[in-house]
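Justification of resources, computational component.

The compute hours requested in this renewal are based largely on the per-chain cost of generating structure records like the one below. Each record pairs the submitted sequence with a full structure-token output. That output is archived, and it is also reused by downstream analysis tasks.
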Amino acid sequence: MHLPGPSHPSRCPLFIGLACALSLASETIPTLQASPVTSASLATNAVSAFQQAMASTASVQGPPRGSTSEQSAISRFENFLAHLDEKTAREETEKVYATDAFLNDTLKTLHGSAAIRDYFIKTAQGLDSMSVVFDDIATSGHNYYFRWTMETQMKHLAKGKTVRTIGVTLIRFDPRGRVILHQDFWDSAQGVWDYVPLIGPSIKWIQSQL
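The structure output for this chain reads:
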């Protein structure tokens, strides 16, 4: 099933791990050098966390399909991200995300609206600008897939460059229309790691050998 809607630009710190990567880059680099299995371990943990979140929310039904409350839930989620800044994150996150919500943006896994709120705040502080176009929304069961194109300018990486990436976000809502599951499918190498000293050139070299 497809939910039609016009493409529209939104300015927001979306899909949402950029600040974490920026602020922790200096710590991440020596960690990865010291422990080559770190990335694989983190990836495995992220997959397990996602699978557990999918299982734990499998029986949760969101607003009725085609209802006004469903459209309100979709609009609330998009509008929240479209206007996300530090003030909005502090005041609105827990209205959009359920208390026990799950979020993974391919860079970090978070549980609970309080942790998600703090992460959004940190993300807003790590970016100069971001624009997102929601290209499409599709549904399957009670899963909502938001396809988007994102442009970012980061404060500490790729200075002066606009980084353009594409991705999809899987959302599940609870009966009140709050987000209970948020999983991004996004190339974080292209979006962040390509621009981290030492890590970026290594990734590009590996890609050139494939």
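The CA atoms of residues 180 and 210 lie 38 Å apart. Confidence is low (pLDDT under 50) at residues 9-38.
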